[in-house]
Amino acid sequence: MTPELLPHTQIPTLEQFLYYYHKWRDPAKEIIVQEGQDEYERNVRPVLGSVLWEAPYPGALYQIDAAIGDAFLVNDFQRERLIGRPVIYIVIDTFSRKIVGWSVTLEGPNWTGARLALQMAFELYGYCEALIGDNGEIKSYNANSLVNPLDIRVVNAPAYRPDWKPIVERSFLTIKGEYIDFLPGRVIQRRRVRGPDYRLEAAASLNGFRQIFKKSVDHYNQSHRFTDYPLSAHMIQNNIPPSPNAIWQYGIEHLAGPPRAVESVEKMKLCLLPKSRASVHKGEGGGIYFKGLYYVCQRGLQEGWFERIAGRPRRSFPIAYEQTVDKIFICLDHGRSFEECVLTEPYKRFAGKDWFDVRDYFAWKRVADKNAVGFAQQSNAEFHADIENVIAKEIAMTASALTAADLSSGERLAAIKLFRQQLKAYERKFGPVPSVLQLQSALDNPPSLPAATNTREPVRIPDSYVPPANPAAGIRAARQKAKEQQ
Fold first, then answer.
1. Which residues face 329 on adjacent strands?
2. What is the pLDDT of residues 206-244, one digit of tens each?
3. Alpha-carbon distance 115 to 269, whole Å?
4. Nearest to 272 by CA among 174, 350, 173, 338
C-alpha cells in the first residue's frame, strides 16, 4: 500500500515539529524510565539548596567514607614483598569541609578502619551531633555504640547515592591529587602497548604511606581553597579565606563554639570497639564463652553466674572486644559502662594472640579432629584384629593342651588352686618377664610347668584338702564301677 501524504500546506515545518516536540516531552520521565530512579536522583534532579542547611556550624554533621588507595605498597620489614593497596577512611566536617579524622589500614573496608578514623576525629576535635555514611559499616550493629553511649545521630545514605555525602566524596579526589602523582607504584590505566608492570615499581611501605597521607591531609586543611564555598556576608567582611581550617576556626569563634568535648578517652575507645554477643557456660571449664574462648569477670563471680544450678536459664549479653584476645568487655546500661573480663586459666595460653590466629587455630583443630576420626577408626580396626588373632592363638593352644592332657572337667576345676600355686612358685623362682624387650619372646614361647602336670597320672591332692560337697560325685563313682565290671 502506497502511503498518501497530506498536502504540503498541512504538513508542519521542521521548526514547528521541534517546537511541539520539546513542549510536550518530559526528559525527567524519560531518564527515570530508561536509567532508573537512582540515576535521576543522583545526576538529574534539581539541586537548589546547600549542604550547609544541614550543617550550619562545625561539628553539626560529619561525613565518613572509605576508598581503596591508588597505589601498591611493600612490607615494612621485608620490602621485597608487595602487600597490595591500602584501605583509606576519611571523616570530614560538612560545614568547614575540614578532614577531622582518617585511617590507613589493610583491613576491610570494615568497622576496624571506620572506628580508627572516628576515634581520631572525636579525640582531636570532639563529638559530632550527627554522622552520615554509606550503606555499609555505619549500618552495622557496631554503629549502635554511637547512638546511646555517645549521643550521636547516625544516618545511612541509600545505596548508589553518593550525592548524600558529596563533601567527603569530593575530598577523596582532592587528596588523591595531592600525593598520587608522586608515589611510585601508583595505579595507572592499562597500556595498549605492553610495558612494565606498575605494581613492580612500588617502593612505599604502609607506614610510609601513612606519613605521606598525613602530610597531604594537613596541606589540604591548611592551604586548599574552595571556589564554590558559599561564604556568608560576615565571612566576607572579616576576610575569611575559603579554606577548611579558616572556616572551621570562624565557626568556632562566631557560631556555635567548639564541638562537644570527649570526657573520657578510654570510654570513647571502648564504645567504638567492635560489638558482638557472649553467653555464660556453667560447669567445670566453663565461663563467659566467646568465639571458642572462655572468660571470667568479677561481677559474674559475685552474682553467681557460673554456679551449676539446674533450671537457671543461660545468660547472654552484648560485649565489646579488642583486636587481641586477652580481654572482652560486657556492655552495661546500653553501652554506657563496661565490665572487664579476662581469660580463664586454661585459656591463658592464647594471651597476646590476634583473633585471626585463634580463628585459624580452631579451624586447623577442626580439620585435625576430622582427620583423627579416620585414623582412630583404622587404629581400632587393627587393634581388634590383633586381639582376635591373639585370642584365636590362645584358644588353639589351650585346645591342643586339653587333648594331650585328657583331664576331665572335674579334675580341672578341683585343681585350680593347686595349678595357681604351681605357677606362683615358678614366677617367684624365675620372676615374671624381666624386661619389656623380652615381652614378645615370652608371649610367643611361654614357660612350661614341670612335666608332672602334663602326664596322665592322677593329680595328687593334699590330705588337708577337703573338696566341697558335689551331688554328682556319687553318680560318677557308680558309672566308673559299672565300666570296670564289664
1. 320, 340
2. 999 999 899 989 999 998 898 888 888 999 999 999 999
3. 9
4. 338
pLDDT tens figures, 81-135: 899 999 999 999 989 999 999 999 988 788 888 899 999 999 999 999 988 887 6
User: pTM, whole model, 2 decimals?
Assistant: 0.65
Instruction: Name residue 372's beta-bridge partners.
Output: none
Spatial separation of the C-alpha atoms in residues 199 and 406, rounded to whole Å: 92
- Unique residue bearing C-alpha cell 498541512: 10
* Nearest-10 Cα torsion for 449, 454, 457, 463: 40
Domains of the chain and CATH, by start: 14-40 (no CATH), 51-254 (3.30.420.10), 273-359 (no CATH)
Question: Are the C-beta atoms of residues 251 and 95 closer than 8 Å to each other?
Answer: yes
b/e sequence 349-364, b meaning 16+ C-beta within 10 Å: ebeebebeebeeeeee
Q: pLDDT tier at 463 (50, 70, 90 boundaries)? A: low
Range 116-119, long-range pairs (CB < 8 A, 24+ positions): 116/89, 117/64, 117/89, 117/90, 117/91, 118/64, 118/91, 118/146, 118/272, 119/268, 119/269, 119/272
Sign of CA dihedral 375, 376, 379, 381: negative
Q: Is the pLDDT of residue 48 over 50?
A: no
Burial (Cβ within 10 Å: 0-12, 13-18, ≥19) of residue 89: buried
Please report which residue ranges of 224-256 form alpha helices under DSSP H. Answer: 233-237, 244-254
Per-residue burial over 288-298, b = 16 or more CB atoms within 10 Å of its CB, e = otherwise: bebeebbbbbe
Phi, psi of 310 (to 5 degrees): -65, 140
Amino acid at 437: L
321 closest CA partner among 347, 291, 285? 291
Q: How many CB atoms lie within 10 A of CB 21?
A: 9
Task: Of 277, 273, 328, 316, give the one whose Cα is nearest residue 146.
Answer: 273
Does the structure show a pLDDT above 90 at 328? Answer: yes
Cα–Cα distance between 98 and 57 in angstroms, integer? 12
pLDDT at 340 over 70: yes
In the Cβ-directed half-sphere of 234, how many Cα atoms lie within 13 Å? 6
C-alpha span between 73 and 83 (Å, rounded)? 6
pLDDT more than 90, % of the chain: 25
Task: Read off the pLDDT band of 459 (50, 70, 90).
Answer: low
